[in-house]
Amino acid sequence: MRILIADVESQGLGLALRAVEAGHEVRLARWSRTPIRDGDGFSSISIVDDWRPSMAWVKGGLVITTGNARWMTEMDRFRDFGFDIFGPTARSAELEINRQAGMEAMQAVGIEVPAYQSCNSLEEAEKLARKSPDPMVFKTLGSEDDKSLTYVADDPADMVGWLGRQIARGMRLKGPCMLQAKIDMVAEIGVSGWFGPEGFLPDKWQTCFEHKKLMAGDNGPNTGEMGTVCQYVETDKLADEMLVPMAPILRTAGHRGDFAVGAGIDSKGRCWPFEFTARLGWPAFPIQLASHRGDPVLWMKDLMLGKDTLRVRTDVAIGVVLAQPRFPYGGAPTEAVEGNPIRGLEGAWPDVYPFAVMAGKGPMMRDGEVVAGTICQTSGECVAVATGLGRTVEQARRRVYDTVDQVRFANRMFRTDIGEKLADQLPFLHEHGYATQMRFS
Fold it and tell me: Does 278 share its domain with 306?
């Protein structure tokens, strides 16, 4: 089958390589400020810098989008002409990109959200914070690029101070913002499902626990995610509460592919939604892929046709992000992040999903001598995700960190504690009916 991966977030390399290994013909379209020559890097895939000329080539096959930051409206036009596109539509992407649209959709189907007040500016939010007796959370409401602007304050004075510093620095928002009631949260949890024309695939919910901070113990800056613990389950309380009710809205929006909700469980065991993810998750998708059996993309084509051929493993699955400076801030000089040799990748290949990896010429050992050859090298800051599966969180942790130990490159960065916090959280969650099929040990 012909596969075109429109790589919105430059994270489709691992899927492209696995699809080729399964016998598919693959083109990987990556947006770039400089032209990408066909055949650069991995010779088994065709890398192009524009997906549009490849649409005639892929007709009858499958288009996969890796995000929702661009191209959605253009892609929707091709859906109208019979193209199978695995990914969000412009309307379903809006549920994630525009936080207010997502919250209004939740309320429309009866999902209660934490109390909030919207503001048109930082100055208006600062005045509101001064009057509040309780701690709050600041979030953007519109289509803000930087979702890391979320700030959780210890008390109203902390929020007033933070907002004042942003105003003094000249920060301006693209749209409205909000101050939301701070939840006395014991644990964060998420669940995702695969959505097709017949609705969510049955019996294939994936519970997930994200680790967003850079350093162990949930310290340091927010990176998006440094690692995640996942598990496919047949039934899930959170999915029943917050995904199943969204099915009519997703069907109307024409959504296809992954759809997830992130939530927090308060000290009374009540679940509060935070936001939706209307696209493949990163690093969630590499972890999901490690849990799939058989062809990595054929089930996606079948989903577009309303068929369920996805086979999954129900083991606990953990992914650990491997990065190099200046992650998570970006902006590192090209010469600092490109061309660093990656050792041990070949032996760990089944358990590693490459992001910023390239095949290039470099020194290697052969018969006891240093010779020039083709080796794997880094090509960016977020290099790869190591994965590991096991019957319990502890077993999956041992296996994923065995893989981490094998894959080495200069200034390698990773968290050493992915999954550890679940030792304390899972008993509480089980008591209230969440993640009941996951065991720590």
Answer: yes
pLDDT tens-place string over residues 84-101: 999 999 999 999 998 889
Q: SS3 string of 2-58?
A: EEEEEECCCCCHHHHHHHHHCCCEEEEEECCCCCCCCCCCCCCCEEECCCHHHHHHH
Give the SS3 label for residue 438.
Answer: coil
Output the pTM of the full model.
0.94
Query: Tokens at residue 302, please?
Result: 């079948």
107 located within any domain? no
| Nearest of 382, 383, 352, 226 to residue 290 by alpha carbon | 352
For a pLDDT cut of 70, what percent of the chain falls above it? Answer: 96
CATH number of the structural domain spanning residue 25: 3.40.50.720
Q: Are 6 and 59 in contact (CB under 8 A)?
A: no
Domain span including residue 377: 185-431
Give residue 240's Cα distance to chain centre.
Answer: 22
**What whole-number distance in Å separates Cα of residue 343 and Cα of residue 377?**
9
Q: How far apart are CA 149 and CA 155, in angstroms?
A: 17
Residue 300 maps to a domain: yes
- The reply to whether 103 falls in a domain is no
3-state helix, strand, coil in the chain (%, to 5): 30, 35, 35
| Domain co-membership, 124 together with 220 | no
Could you give the C-alpha distances from 36 to 43, 54, 80, 336, in angstroms and in order?
13, 15, 29, 20
Query: Within this chain, do residues 141 and 66 fall inside the same structural domain, yes or no?
Result: no
